[in-house]
Amino acid sequence: MSDMTLGLRGVSRIFNKGTPGEVRVLEGVDLDIARGEVVGLVAPSGSGKSTLLHIAGLLDTPDTGEVRIAGQDATRLRDGARTRLRRDTVGFVYQFHHLLPEFTAAENIVLPQRAAGVSRADAEARAAMLLGSVGLTPRATHRPGELSGGEQQRVAVCRALANAPQLLLADEPTGNLDPGTSETVFDVLVRLVRDTGMSALIATHNLELAARMDRVLKLERARVIPA
Ligand SMILES: Nc1ncnc2c1ncn2[C@@H]1O[C@H](COP(=O)(O)OP(=O)(O)OP(=O)(O)O)[C@@H](O)[C@H]1O
């Protein structure tokens, strides 16, 4: 098994190529994340953070370059195989929770497991365990609209970890929260990542939070470099 959870080689992404509106967002990006490594990504708004995370998480494909996840070259896979690799290895946390409003906190964590073929009993047990680990057992039957912003985001963290991904990608996971709540959600996120030994790439504007990670990178002039 590869010691690298994520490897990008020479990744470029150019929107509206060859037109007056051409945007060169990523150019020749190289990035490796080792197993168990927690890496911060600090980048100004509009610099290509989301584009990079989408490519790393197989939601978008680069114009050139290679994306390897868990030892597999994703750029060579057909759509169905890419989707399966994403489902089995990557978890996402976004700035806004994107929980399904009509389902309870527990159901939001059960559903991705059911989609991956886990039995209802096992999925419910894992959802209960995850909610317990972020201090939300008393909120398991609440719908997202009945939860605070910090609680919603803690549920979103549990959902991202539902299928025990090898790689967690987080795009400003606390960007929508006040400083105190942001701290709590961030602590929960990093603790769960460390406890399970997964790798993470966490984009944040918050330099204090970024400093707690193993390594901090920045995105500058379409390249990823040490911060
Ligand atoms: N589908 C697209 N078509 C054209 N341009 C795009 C597309 N997606 C992103 N861009 C442009 O690429 C640049 C990077 O966008 P991206 O969303 O990756 O930035 P970001 O760093 O995540 O910004 P923010 O922090 O504000 O979300 C921006 O200038 C954006 O306008």
| Beginning-to-end CA distance, first to last residue | 29 Å
- Overall 3D shape: globular
Order of helix and strand elements from N to C terminus: EEEHEEHEHHHEHEHEE
CATH superfamily: P-loop containing nucleotide triphosphate hydrolases
Overall mean pLDDT = 93
Name the structural class: alpha/beta
Question: Could you say how many structural domains there are in total?
Answer: 1
Radius of gyration: 17 Å
Q: Order of strands in the sheet with the most strands? A: 6-7-8-3-9-10
Ions, cofactors and other ligands present here are: adenosine-5'-triphosphate
Keywords: ATP-binding, Cell inner membrane, Cell membrane, Membrane, Nucleotide-binding, Transport
Protein name: ABC transporter ATP-binding protein
GO cellular component, one term: membrane protein complex
Family: Belongs to the ABC transporter superfamily. Macrolide exporter (TC 3.A.1.122) family.
Describe the structure using short key phrases.
4-stranded antiparallel sheet; 227 residues; alpha/beta; Rossmann fold; 7 helices; 10 strands; 6-stranded mixed sheet; binds adenosine-5'-triphosphate; 34% helix
Summarize the topology.
Elements: E1 4-15, E2 23-34, E3 38-42, H1 49-56, E4 64-69, E5 72-73, H2 79-89, E6 90-93, H3 105-115, H4 120-133, H5 149-160, E7 167-171, H6 179-196, E8 199-203, H7 207-210, E9 215-220, E10 223-226
Parallel strand pairs: 3-8, 3-9, 6-7, 7-8
Antiparallel strand pairs: 1-2, 1-4, 4-5, 9-10
Helix pairs in contact: 3-4, 3-5, 5-6
Bound molecules: adenosine-5'-triphosphate.
The site of adenosine-5'-triphosphate has 12 residues, from strand 2 and helix 1.
